[in-house]
Automatic annotation (TrEMBL):
Signal peptide: none annotated. InterPro entries: DUF2231_TM, UCP029509. Keywords: Membrane, Transmembrane, Transmembrane helix. It comes from the Bacteria. The chain crosses the membrane at residues 49-71, 83-103, 115-137. It holds the Pfam family DUF2231. This is Putative membrane protein. Residues 14-133 form the DUF2231 domain. The lineage of its organism: Bacteria, Pseudomonadati, Pseudomonadota, Alphaproteobacteria, Hyphomicrobiales.
Amino acid sequence: MVALSHSGDLRPLHPLHAILLAFPLPLFAGALASDLAYRASFHIQWANFSSWLIAGGLVGGGFALLWALINLFRRGPARKGRLVVYFIVLLAMWGLGFVNALIHAKDAWATMPEGLYLSAITTLLALVAAWVGYSGFRTGEVK
C-alpha cells in the first residue's frame, strides 16, 4: 500500500503567480541567445533584442518578486525556509537582471563580454527560481 505524507510547506502557486513566474525564464533565455548571436555576428540589432528581452524579464520577474514578498509576510513564522530561498533567488535574479539592463544600455560593442556573462547567470537564476517556485505543486510524496 502506498502512503502519502502531506507537507504543509509545499503549496501550489496561485495561478496568477504561476503566470508571472513563467515570464522571466524564456525572456532571459532569449536575451542570452541574442547575446550569443551578437557575439557571433556583431549585428547591432541582436543587442537591441537583448535589451528588450531583459526589460520584459524584469517586468514579469518584478511582479513575481513582489508576489513572493507578499507571500513571505502572509505566511506564519513556521515553515518559511522554502519561501525565503525562493524570494532570495528571485531577488538575485532581478538584481542581476537590472545590472544586465544597465550594461546593455551602453553601446552594443561595449556590452561584451559582461552582458553575455550576466545574461547567462540571470538565465540560470531564472531557471532555479522557476524550479523552486513550481516544485510546490507536489503536495505529497510516496513513502
